[in-house]
Amino acid sequence: MRRRGIPCAAALPFLLLLLLLLLLCVAGGAAASCPYDIDGATRIIPTGCYANATAATTGCCWYVFASYMYAAIRYANLTGTAFLPEATARTCTTDFSSYAVRQGLVVPSLLLSGDRCNLAGDPIKFAAGSRPCQFSKISDVFSAVDLSNGTRLCTATRRNLTDDQFSCVACQNAVIAATFALFDATRSKEMVPCGMAATMGIWVSTVPDIGRFRSYVLCMVQILENVGNLGTGNIIPSSPRPPPLPSPPASLPSSSSGGGSRIAKIAAGSVSGVVILVAGVSFLVLALIRRRKRSLASVTTDLEFTVPIDRPLPTEGLYIFTMSELKQATSGFHSRNLLGEGGAGKVYLGTLPSGQQVAIKRIHRKKRKLGEFYREVEVVAKLRHRKLTTLVGYCLQSKGHALVYEYMPGGNLSAALSRGDLPWRRRLLIAGDVAEALAYLHDLPDGAVVHRDVKPTNVLLAGDGTAKLSDFGVSKVVPPGTSHVSTEVKGTRGYLDPEYFGAGKVSKAADVYSFGVMLLQLLTGTKAVVETPSGGQQSIVQAARAVSGGATAIVDHRLAAECDGDSLEEVFQLACRCVKPYKDERPRMADVLSVLRGVLAVVEATPVGPTSGAALTPVGPTGGAPFPSRGDSPPTTAEPSTSSSSF
């Protein structure tokens, strides 16, 4: 029987086909596997991306990108690898995208629609070396730029960034600053890869949990609000929360089928489409920053009001507002939003697009006041303390200058004392808060910051009663190893240190004196400058020294029902030490703080009630008339008291 088989000529193509298949199998077996924890990272993507596909389009694109970055950060922490090699990156983007589709995290119809997620894929955009800033090792990122400030402002906060608007703004600016530093290091202007490298470097040492990193993602999304409120209503899926995810549709093929590869391509397109989306957002941010720089530059053309400065004002951790943004926040600086007016300018209540309320101080257009504006920004930008008001940002344009601070709904201490609604314990807490702020300022390693204008109107109260020191327009830095600096006398009448006033040499002791005056006001409820029985005026310091009977002779009559004589006397004696005529006789603010904390501890442990109602009845400096009603004196640069002995 003749054996049947395949002729040699016909067998050759068949053998070549087998060889090709074998090579493909070998190539497929050698393909790099993705080392990322895809399952863990994709938990960042909210359920709304599937259930509310239309409403959450922008947010879904952003979340897919963020979850990929989260996986990269976790892997970088374990291995030191920043961006993956090209083959591995291609595998990861494909696996990552197809997994999101299979798990029902991203609805296929969204990816197939004509929306912004449906863009051509290019996974190697995530590969090491494919673009500037995409380093293969995380150590290379650290070598290129210092990211310590970003790590501190973005990862080391006690609360999530979405719960603390001021920390969020500081983090946003730190990330932008780090990205621009990478521009300089790589001589490029590619926002997306440099932004990814900055984010990776900032978070790699902390390995955040999903909730904390999600808050960072939401904070970064808020940049959209700062460039014109572009679609921010659709960034986060709206409530109510959608029902649990259904099983992936049966019509979807598995990833092992030919249709699965099509889904992988679509989903991969979505990831790279997100890169384009983020690039678009980054372009807007870049345009915004360039607009800010033009705003800063425009000041130099306003010769009438320009105050020369040696270096540019700090921007790190601060938001640079335009005047149009501030007008929008205050309804055109409407009078109904006016909170008050001081020597430097008017203060308005403003509302940012995020809903955050702020206090906007619009600076008077006088050369001296603009000098105070520059000084305040330079000083406050370096300060971070819970007992100091937080500077959110500023506006520096030829059209006007403004400082934007956190809003303190409790008003200032001066108004609270006038209302008479501060019990003794609350006054002690306020004194302790201000003492803590001053102790911090005086012990800064780069030089003590002397406030030079400590008074009740510059002490602001939060809704919970916490006090914060504000207004650094006349502050002065005393270099390390130096006891004082010679300068023009500035401050407010009644609070000026007599030694500083006479010699023009400011030191930390000047703040101690002013604080002592404020302590006397907390005890008496009076002005810093009071009237005498004859119709003249004298400082509260001189009036307090003139009375006999110590603290109980001058105490605010509104406190008589709750004070104990011991705590009053101890605070009175502390105030007297603070207002000693010579600076070397006064205590340090750290010691003042220690005494106040001790007094407060005793008061909190003692039942409320007076030691003697008669003993606590206040009398005036002559022993008969009570201290007059209080209120702060008007500000002045060098106005002496009418009583020379008080200085």
TrEMBL record:
Signal peptide (from-to): 1-31
Keyword Hydrolase: no
Alphabetically ordered keywords of this record: ATP-binding, Membrane, Nucleotide-binding, Signal, Transmembrane, Transmembrane helix
Molecular function GO labels: ATP binding; protein kinase activity
Superkingdom to which the source organism belongs: Eukaryota
Comp. bias (Pro residues): 239-251
Organism: Spirodela intermedia (Intermediate duckweed)
Keyword Mitochondrion (UniProt): no
Low complexity: bias regions: 633-647
Transmembrane regions listed in the UniProt entry: 266-289
Gene3D superfamilies: Phosphorylase Kinase, domain 1, Transferase(Phosphotransferase) domain 1
Name this protein carries in UniProt: Protein kinase domain-containing protein
Region (Disordered), start-end ranges: 235-257, 610-647
Alphabetical list of SMART domains matching this protein: S_TKc
Domain Protein kinase: 333-600
SUPFAM superfamilies: Protein kinase-like (PK-like)
Pfam families in the record: Pkinase (PF00069), SPARK (PF19160)
